[in-house]
Amino acid sequence: MSPVLKIFVGALMMVLGIFTSIEFSNQLLNLVLGGIGPLLILVGAFIVWLESDEWKVQRQEKQEKQQKSTQFNGQQTLQEQETTQETQKDVERETREAAKEIKQAVSSSTSNGSRAEELVTSSTVQEVKEAVQNREDITAKEVLEAEKNNQNRKTLVNYLERRLD
């Protein structure tokens, strides 16, 4: 039976219990029948209480199912947004890399200063020091200017300034 029907039966039992309590309590012989009324009241109230709780639980389960389906749809939308954002980030990163490559290609074709700049941006401090010592086409002054314009690493700047002095 559905909870609503059980609640209705419990309420009817309560009404019958009240009616029989009033009707048969005046007669001593019918004392037993007078006791049936309060018993019906208690049983009816208990049934109403139990079934109303069951009804409440069923409504909560239905709401939880609706919330789960809403959350599932929300999660799908969130995943689609994250995928779109990741794609945008990938495109931006690839664009930056392409711009760097173009910039490096243009700068490497210009002069010694740009070779020094390329050396500074793509090498470690130790590699720059070795290049300044071993190569004649790049001077310490050019590398110092390029370093100050780009990464400005203090150890390399100090080394190059000492080398110039």
TrEMBL record:
Feature: compositional bias, Basic and acidic residues: 87-103
Polar residues biased stretches: 105-123
Region feature Disordered, mapped onto this chain: 60-123
Sorted UniProt keywords: Membrane, Transmembrane, Transmembrane helix
Record field: compositional bias (Low complexity): 68-86
Transmembrane region(s): 7-25, 31-50
Transmembrane is among the record's keywords: yes
The name this protein goes by in its record: Uncharacterized protein
Organism lineage: Archaea, Candidatus Nanohalarchaeota, Candidatus Nanohalobia, Candidatus Nanohalobiales, Candidatus Nanohalobiaceae
